[in-house]
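Quick start: what a row looks like.
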Amino acid sequence: MKSIFGILQYVKGYWRYAILNIVFNIISALFSLFSIAMLFPFLQVLFSNDSKKMDAILQMGQPEFHFSSESIINNINYILSKDIEAHGQIHTLIGICLFIVTTIFFKNLFRYLAMFFIAPIRNGVVKDMRNNLFQKILILPLSYYSDERKGAIMSHMTTDVREVEWSIMNSLEMVFREPIAIIISLVLMILMSWKLTVLAFILLPITGIFIGRIGKSLKRTSTKEKEKTGLLLSILDETLGGLRIIKAFNAENSIKQKFIKENNAYTRLMVRAYRKIDLSSPLSEFMGVTVFVVILYVGGKMVLGNQPTMEGAVFITYLALFSQLIAPAKAFTTAYYNLQKGLASTERINKILNAEVTIKNPPHPKPLNSFEKEIEYKNVSFAYRENEVGWVLNNINLKIEKGKTIALVGQSGSGKTTLADMLPRFYDPSHGEILVDGIVIKDSRLADLRSLMGIVTQESILFNDTVFNNIAFGLDNITEQQVIEAARIANAHEFISQMPQGYYTNIGDRGSKLSGGQRQRLSIARAVLKNPPILILDEATSALDTESERLVQDALNKLMKNRTSLVIAHRLSTIQHADEIIVMQKGEIIERGTHTELINKNGAYQRLHELQSFV
């Protein structure tokens, strides 16, 4: 129920539509039940050949109206008897037929209006949920995604949201509509016979117990099914991203078998889920008919007994009303099953929506609009999960003065990238603090902090868009001339000009239409255009061939001019002119100094230099 109320929170902006839907559903239910409830008394008088009974009804005059079944029936009998006497049975039959057609017309008209106004709610709620989910994906820290499969998150965004749309939003109206029809029917039934209605109240909850048990089982099955969907999407994503390696290692068969295994498990879960869903309709119908038969037997005794306590016409009308309970109850049961299935998706979505955002703006941020003096790492230590793995960084102390170039070198896994990632607050220190111009970066706005930085990574992050939009990414009111100038500085203008539509050429998924060097130069052009005072370069040339490396390194040198740079270096030849080189090992700084100073120390840096000299 908590998840249902969570969904209903999204309806807040659509209350006007919700109220109209409820009103029109009530009117539609009234027209439906009115036509059914009044049909049998009409026919009783209409087809009656007992003239003495009709004369007796007319001689008594029009009865005084009270809100009771007996009063309603007596008034209808009087009106119809008078019409038959005045115009004949055929005329009254035509009037009844027109009355039934009219009530059914208005029933369906108001039913359509109810559906008309539920459509914005159904689609609007799902739209808002999808927007909130995407927004939360953007603000969650990178550490969250280290424990999550990308395919599982894609499954939340697509399959689970679609399940909410179909299973919950399609059923939500039934949950509110069918009880209205049930309540109106029960009110009329109580007026006719409170004893039979009490019996129905006793029997109907028994059916709910059986339905509830299967519904809970369906929810568990649906949860497992959604997990398998996420796993299948993960396998598909990894396969598409790794096709080159799969083919190179002749691993097509093993990947295929892995997918088939998980797909078979998913299919078995879906079969179980559909069987449980399909059980809801026949089970609810059987239980409803069983209750109907019990009511038929007890009510029949009340009519056919030696001392009847109920008129036959009233009992027939009562049965007609009770029969109208079966369809809403059946629909309500189906809606309940669908809700259970959809709640499993809702819980998975809420897992993301309720995830803690650890990297966030402080309540009262300090202004950080420019960079004037220095960056300082003060006693910084970091672990992804302190109780599970060791320290990635351990007691780091480092100052980076404005305009200086600081290079980080060391073995893979020594903590270089993590150290750099903490400056724009992709991660926060477990202990210690990082300061920019004396301001702890946790005390500043994320947007202010990150506006001071440009980042170029080893793997160029580009988007399936034009060259222009990739270079101008994240910036507003950028002119074509500004983009061209940035591309010239990044040594990218020449190859861009040769593309079919120049700067408006689409570069494909992740820049797949470009070479590695071209992608990297676009990333550099993007950083040039942002014009940040602080640069973070994460092994920006390590994956390139010699010619591309020369072009990219030349672009980087232009980019780094008069800026403060934190450079993660794989090739030591690219950072020999750095103002200070920091040598890291197992999360600690073991050496620091200029290239010449470190070579003369004959330590870890000198050994790394010798190893690369022999390559």
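That is the whole record. The first strand starts at residue 374 and ends at 382. The domain at 2-119+128-229+270-353 is CATH 1.20.1560.10 (ABC transporter transmembrane region fold).
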